[in-house]
Amino acid sequence: MTDVPAIELNNGVPVPQLGFGVFLVPPGETRTAVATALETGYRHIDTAKAYDNEGEVGAALAASGIPREELFVTTKLWNADQGRDATLRAVDASLGRLGLDHVDLYLIHWPVPSADRYVETWKALEEIAADGRARAIGVSNFQPAHLDRLAAETGTVPAVNQVELHPHLAQQELRDYHVAHGIVTEAWSPLARGGDVLTDGTVTAIAARHGRTPAQVVLRWHVQLGNVVIPKSVTPSRIAENLDVFGFALSAEEMAAISALDAGTRIGPDPDTFAAA
Question: Is residue 148 part of a domain?
Answer without folding.
Answer: yes
